[in-house]
Amino acid sequence: MTEIQTVTGATTPEQLGRTLMHEHLLIGYPGSDVDWVNPGPSRRERVERCVERIEEMKALGITAMLDPCPSDLGRDVELMAEVAQRTRFSLICATGLYKEAEGATAYWKFKMNFGSVVDAMAELFIRELTDGIAGTGIRAGIIKVATGHATLTPYEQAVFEAAAKASLATGAPITTHTDEGRYGDDQQAFLTGHGVPAHRIVIGHSCGTSDTAYHTKIARSGSYLGFDRFGLDLLQPDTERVAALARLIQGGFGRQIVVSHDSVWCWNGAPIPTEALEQMEKIWNPTHFLTRIAPRLRDAGVGEAEIDALLLDNPRRFFAGEPL
Ligand SMILES: [Zn+2]
Predict the structure, then answer these.
(1) How many angstroms is it from 114 CA to the middle of ligand 1?
(2) How far does the chain reach from its first CA to its final CA, in angstroms?
(3) Who is most buried in 44, 119, 156, 260, counting CB within 10 A?
(4) Handedness of CA 7, 321, 64, 48 (dihedral sign)
């Protein structure tokens, strides 16, 4: 039986239940830790806020969540473990590194002056997947990689190559970040070209575009698509995300889609002005899909079983590594 690592220990894909595949307890952009004038919420406030969010999800029947924060974006696995313990909720964390434009790249780029960093990155990812993260004993359950407003940069190619190595060495799946729903096909081609089976990959933020030909290309090549930014109207209106999702389900690709919001519950520092953030959080929160998007999918003709599969069957099959 396939095991999957949560921040509080191993479980099975069957035991996960309804799973949101991309939400964040905490994000901290590199540099936020030096803004001591605006530190963001205290540790206690962070725990309380995250517990509250998870209780709201549990009330809707959601029992698990992936927080794919890469190691260089404020990832706090001890916060995750404390919240998971308090709520008796399955939380999966990630190893991996963020896109070049917004990650903590200085260290790796300096190191690249002396040769390839792929093996060192791969060793770090593997250790986080097998031994645990930085002495905590908390193991990552997935690998996160990312690209920005262009196809893979040389730095990102190193990260992706290391991710492929770590995935093949450990059997861990991979989830990605794309901007504007672009270059996911390039990500898929790169990873499968380095030996990762397509069905072990979620191309994240695919709902950043309504381009059904792009979605279909990735789906036909055998990966999962993350429709995982519901409520982020700032980047792409939900009307577009819903219509594109309904088209894919009606086109027979419903088994290959996972859903989420990419909501962020706590920030290091203060990257978004408080008023703007409060306004955004009215719909950009982890209850939005079940309370507001599912009814719109029903109105668009999507059946109840197909909607439920997005949360239950598809994450289970992805983590179990079952062929599509
Ligand atoms: Zn995210």
Answers:
(1) 31
(2) 18
(3) 260
(4) positive
